[in-house]
Design brief:
The longest helix has 32 residues. The termini are far apart. The chain has one domain: Four Helix Bundle (Hemerythrin (Met), subunit A). With 216 residues, the chain is mostly helical.
């Protein structure tokens, strides 16, 4: 299989132009000749991605953001390796989906806890609200997408590209905000609020149009 066939049609804009280019280099040049299985790689990427949480808890926003983004960029490697070696499986897809959700929630929880602490009592409630809604939205947009995709036999609702709710975009926003938080932690409120808005809006929009779509 050629390198061009290792990606996915559902890749978001960040995955297509940034993450996938990086992960393909890692997969084809470093992983293809090893005995590492795709499922083993999934767990390894999960373990690495979790290191963003202690970095955030220590107040190292920039490090937490860079680890979160690195984990997001490496997230495609297990699927690429599976397709390259002809080892794609439902079990691998299950591991990947579930562990991604755990990574997202744990990362956002650690980030939100430290952010609420650092910005003080006057703004801490906003941090908790934005962080909670971002975590819930990430879970629900993913869950509702899998449900509607299964029901429709593939595909999704029409949605403006500028309001992308995909994980690759969410993680990049968190990473950029985390690096900028070195100047002022309050900057992180903006990406958290944006993620909370677009993910929950997408999930509720699917609810609103589900009756019409699923009747067809």
């Amino acid at each position: 299989m050629g390198v061009g066939g290792l990606g996915k049609a559902t890749d978001g804009v960040v995955s297509r132009y940034l993450n996938r280019r990086f992960s393909l280099l890692i997969t084809t040049r470093l992983l293809a000749g090893t005995s590492i299985t795709p499922n083993q790689l999934t767990w390894m990427i999960f373990a690495l991605s979790l290191q963003a949480a202690p970095a955030y808890l220590l107040g190292l926003y920039w490090l937490g953001g860079l680890i979160a983004q690195l984990g997001s960029m490496l997230d495609g490697c297990d699927g690429e390796l599976a397709r390259l070696k002809g080892m794609a499986s439902e079990l691998g897809a299950f591991y990947d989906a579930v562990l991604d959700r755990y990574t997202d929630v744990i990362t956002l929880a650690a980030l939100t806890y430290r952010l609420a602490w650092d910005i003080g009592p006057a703004l801490s409630a906003y941090a908790w609200l934005a962080g909670l809604l971002a975590a819930v939205g990430g879970l629900m947009t993913s869950y509702s997408w899998h449900l509607i995709k299964t029901a429709l036999g593939g595909g999704d609702v029409a949605w403006p590209a500028i309001l992308s709710d995909s994980r690759d975009v969410r993680m990049l926003l968190v990473a950029v905000g985390s690096v900028l938080a070195h100047v002022d932690p309050r900057i992180l409120l903006a990406p958290l609020a944006w993620i909370a808005l677009v993910t929950n809006a997408k999930a509720f929009y699917r609810l609103a149009v589900a009756r019409k779509l699923l009747r067809k």
